[in-house]
């Protein structure tokens, strides 16, 4: 493809799609007690969940360096790309977008277009998929970038956490800080608005939060086709149960992916977190086959 697509590791795209479309993924960095490394390459979600469950343990994250992005862009150009569209998690949540922008200035802003998805996880991932699918069809860089922007704008991200403490410690909770006093005794349903984590509603139990997560997702998807991703950290059974509920209640699913959050986002939501990304899709053509959960 003449237009290459780059993203960061917080998009949590299924590895099969990364390989299929040749997406360049630049990892964030994660710092655990006694060691640090690249998300998804050196440090995985299980290690983060274990560290967060250890009393007094500190887990932090940092953005990729500008040099990391320069190297990624040069690999794309060496591979034959003429233009690059680089799609990243919300600038409100990380400095990743800024590092990519600085790298683009070194390579040439007429070559690299950097996009703030104002989202994270598969809300960014679906924007990346829209971009790379447009590129695969021969779209120019402007059209590829527009496909990413439009998809990012249409995504909704909903999630619940066992505790808001990890978000508070990481400074990612935004407006939700106003409800911290009471929220630690309830189970808030949160969402991402304009790149920030904000409360959507408060419920009293985990079961009720799960139920509302399903209801809100179905309402967001509407009656038409939709693409959906289910995320979790150290909660695979809850995630599969959530996915099964959505398969039953969303008969027009185009795509459904279930994946564990990586270290960079997992460090801020904590073990037990589950979430959904939903993208209402145009009602065009046949529905895609929805991946079934793997057999035990």
TrEMBL record:
Q: What keywords would UniProt list here?
A: Lipid-binding
**Gene Ontology molecular-function annotations:** lipid binding
User: Is Cell inner membrane among the key words of this record?
Assistant: no
Check the record and name the InterPro entries matching this protein.
Answer: DegV (IPR003797), DegV_C (IPR043168), DegV_domain_contain (IPR050270)
Q: Keyword Signal: yes or no?
A: no
Superkingdom of source:
Bacteria
**Pfam families recorded:** DegV
The name under which this protein is listed is DegV family protein with EDD domain
| Organism in which the protein naturally occurs | Petropleomorpha daqingensis
